[in-house]
Amino acid sequence: MPVSERGDVVGAGAQSAAQASPPVTATGTPLATPAVAHRSEFLYFAFRNWKFVFGLVVITSMLVLALVGPLLADHKPLEFAGPTDQPPSAEYWFGTTSFGQDVFAQFVYGLRAAFLVGALGGGIAWLLGAGIGFTAGYRGGWVDDVLNMLTNVVLVIPTLAILIIVAAYLNVHSYATEAILIGLTSWPWAARAVRAQTFSLKTREFVDIARLSGRRTRQIIATEIAPNMSSYLLMMFILLFGGAILIGASLDFLGLGPATSVSLGLMMHNAYLATAMLLGFWWWFVPPGVGIIAIVGGLYVMNVGLDEVFNPKLREL
Amino acid sequence: MTRYLLRKIVIYLVTFFVAVTIDWAIPRFMPGDPVEGLLARMQAQPEAAAHLSGYYTQAFGFDVPLWQQYLNFWAALFHGDLGLSIANFPTPVTELIWGALPYTLALLVPAILLSFWAGNKVGALAARRKVLDNTVLPVGYVLTATPQMWLAIILAWLFASTYAFFPVTGAYSLALQPEWSLEFTRSFLHHWILPFLALFLVAFGGWAIGMRNMIIYELEADYSNYLASLGAPTKLVRKYAYRNALLPQITGLALALGAVVAGAIVVEIVFAYPGLGTLTLNAIENRDYFLMQGIFLFLIVGVLIANFVIDVAYVIIDPRTRIGMQGGA
């Protein structure tokens, strides 16, 4: 997936950020006050980075639409709302489908499903990737050999191919199930990247000191290693979130998602089945794609912005 | 070098073994009785259900112990026997897949190679060049966040219904038979261009952004600064940066294969292109499980072969893997 190779790229940035020189403002003058607290320093640069702000604004407005939209919609997404094949109008903001359903209602409920699949699927993949990566990288030896083999095997198997046969046998009834399936299959690149980072961090002196002082492995990972790659872990979650939404949309488009509720992928599936693109019912299939691009693209742009915030070397231009 | 490739081959063999095992295990270990589940979802008539039930039990080989089922599965696999298709009974699954494979390859191979080449070139040009960067970056992000099936639907809508430039269904005109003739080739290319574009554009965006970011990292590296301070022309510095940035991109190519294959499946469906994707949809709609499992195995084997080709290319391009200085991809 295109996401994954950027994951490695981001890793390089996050790592060099840890050793970077004192922050420099956009004009090139060093910051006068050295005592700026870490958190506010992060916010200072984050909100001066247009990529981060742009991504955040897009994501937030989509999230608000997903939360508030269903309250504004007059109809349930799957109910028969009135005239069929209507272009957008004052009454039906996004028009209606060939089954007389309100496209706006479908869109906002679909956004909810997208956020759910992204958050849950991305979250599970993040937990698995971080857990396996930390364990393999910190323990080394045979544990690493086994986990690394597992990672490489799952990495090579095309995620959608395995999800197609699993979803076909296991009737998927809810987006939570779909998200869990996605999370269980999309963690490998994250595990590989965390493992590589852990390898380089575990030989540092502060980790040695922690080990000498008798701290437990789990504590060392949580308090010494993870905080030193926190920026990286955050960006990893963002990429996994976006990836989960794209995979979920493909599954729904194939008709393997839950059939009783609506999602952006299912909207495209229905529009395609009704040959909406040949009949020119653009209002039916344009919104779901735009919604996905807004969420996923917003996440990616926010991710690059964060990379520039964490890594001063990238801030110029 | 041999050690590096051998290690990769071991990983691929294990992956193949695991994939076959998953393929075998899913119908057997999913909750509920698979045969009953299949029949319930097919909503077959009672008489038909009885026949199908018998067929499934026999075809899955449920009447022998589990370990023997597993060995039988492997034995059948090595005889090239993936079962018979339910939807196109009694055509063997392998025959259907061999018929669809050329079309999928004709879409995938050019889309992967051309998008990789063009994306890397454009990304490298855009890095640290303000005007170009400001176009390539937003366009690249929109493209890489686009679901392929949506782009396919939009292309079909724009070029086929509104302007009627390109046909939107099938791989060639239905008036023709597949053959090596000028007319067929023209019709084939005419049908090929839109699905190809849908796959190409999405992948192109990803490569352009990846390369743009990598070049910026490389231009920040000490060797670039050193070279520049020696008075080397910018062109030369960028050339070296490009070569180094290409290595992680090739690793990324191996990782991206799964996503491209997934893209091909959904794009083919939109254009009713007679490849593995459309076959997958048929299998899903008809609950044709043997076909689905067969396609799964073919996809895995294809991705494994492609991975191996990329590994060999990596060894050729990066001399360090040849003398064993690092693990590489």
How would you characterize this protein structure?
The complex is a heterodimer of chains A (317) and B (329). Chain A is mainly alpha-helical. In chain A, 70% of the residues lie in helices and 0% in strands. Chain A is built from 14 helices and no strands. Chain A has helices spanning 2-18, 38-46, 50-72, 103-139, 141-156, 159-169, 175-185, 188-201, 205-212, 217-225, 230-253, 264-273, 276-279, 282-310. In chain A, helix 1 (2-18) packs parallel to helix 14 (282-310), helix 9 (205-212) packs antiparallel against helix 10 (217-225) and helix 12 runs antiparallel to helix 14. Chain A starts with a helix and ends in a 7-residue tail after the last helix. Chain B is an all-alpha fold. In chain B, 78% of the residues lie in helices and 0% in strands. Chain B has helices spanning 2-29, 34-42, 46-60, 66-78, 93-126, 130-144, 148-162, 182-220, 222-229, 234-270, 276-285, 289-317, 319-322. The radius of gyration of chain B is 24 Å and the shape is globular. The model of chain B has no long low-confidence stretch (mean pLDDT 83). Classes of the chains: A mainly alpha (317), B mainly alpha (329). At the A-B interface, helix 1, helix 5, helix 6, helix 11 and helix 12 of A face helix 1, helix 2, helix 6, helix 7 and helix 8 of B.
Question: What's the short version?
Answer:
The complex is a heterodimer of chains A (317) and B (329). Chain A is mostly helical.
Q: Overall 3D geometry of chain A?
A: globular
Helix/sheet category of chain B: mainly alpha
Principal-axis shape of chain B = globular
Give the rounded overall mean pLDDT of chain B. 83
- Radius of gyration of chain A (Å): 22 Å
Percent of sequence in beta strands of chain A: under 5%
Give the helix proportion of chain B (percent range).
over 70%
**Radius of gyration of chain B over all CA atoms, rounded:** 24 Å
Quaternary structure of the protein: heterodimer
Strand element count of chain B: 0
- What is the averaged pLDDT score of chain A? 79
The poorly predicted ranges of chain A are 1-36
Percent of residues in beta strands of chain B: under 5%
The number of helical runs of chain B is 13
In DSSP terms (H or I, runs of 4 or more residues), the helix count of chain A works out at 14
